[in-house]
Amino acid sequence: MLEVRNLRAGYGRVPVLRGVSLAVPANTIIGLLGANGAGKTTLIRAISGLATVHSGDIRFHGAAMTRVRPEMLVRRGLVQVPQGRLLFGEMSVRENLEMGAYTLRGTAAFAAALERVHAMFPMLRERARQPAALLSGGEQQMLALGRALMSNPRCLLLDEPSLGLAPKALDTILDVVERIRAAGTPVLIADQNARKVLQLAQYCYVLENGCIALEGDSRHLASHPGVIASYMGASEP
Q1: Which end of the chain is more exposed for a tag (fewer CB within 10 A), N or C?
Q2: pTM
């Protein structure tokens, strides 16, 4: 589905990633763990066309994506939910969802996408006219995820969805992420909350200083001494 091979990327000429390779197969949730500054956001942004790729290869359903513009990546189904949510705060919940649907053609496609999002997040229907800035942190994360789902993604990239969320709100978000996977959309999730990611994902990669330091089945990594020492203590129980 999504393959990254020997990726070197950063911002301008400044390197951040140094030869990163990973894969997101169909029907899976893949976790990306690492401390602040390890390169998680840079990797998500590089896949999304928002960071400079110096070398390496990004492929999606076998097609090269390394030099494809961000808006075309969205049209091809590779969609990111950014760190910090980046909502349009003065716009209503409904208007934010409409912004996520710009790739859709016709009112029927929009109505179907909106119904799917409302089924996952009923709160977004109830708050349709409310400005996004007035939502709680958990509700804003639901809206950011809903906005991404409006484009009917074929692969979803989640960057730090736990940021600023209470444990209960995060659990709600992660339950929906599993439902998204079960419905056929694979997910790459980057987050510092190692415990939650290891419980959710089938396979995980650990980034350190721009390189993959460790990878493996989530159940195996959850008992790995290095992962426990470096990441599990900082995670929410």
Answers
A1: C
A2: 0.92
Instruction: Render pLDDT for 139-168 as a digit per residue (tens, 0 to 9).
Output: 999 999 999 999 999 999 999 999 888 889
Angle in degrees, 0-180, between the axes of helices 167-182 and 107-120, rounded to the nearest 10:
130
Do the bridges between strand 187-190 and strand 155-159 make them parallel or antiparallel, or are there none, so unpaired?
parallel
Residue 24 tokens read as 């997101």
Q: How far apart are CA 12 and CA 221, in angstroms?
A: 34
Beta bridge pairs of residue 187: 29, 156
Query: In whole angstroms, what is the distance from residue 102 CA to residue 52 CA?
Result: 25
CA distance 6 to 14: 17
From CA 147, how far away is CA 100, in angstroms rounded? 5
Q: Residue 78 belongs to what H/E stretch?
A: strand 78-81
- pLDDT (tens digit, 9 = 90+) per residue, 50-93? 999 999 999 999 999 998 999 999 999 999 999 988 999 999 99
203: which strand partners?
30, 217
Kindly give, in sequence order, each residue whose CB lies less than 8 Å from that of residue 217, ignoring residues fewer than 6 positions away.
202, 203
**What whole-number distance in Å separates Cα of residue 229 and Cα of residue 96?**
40
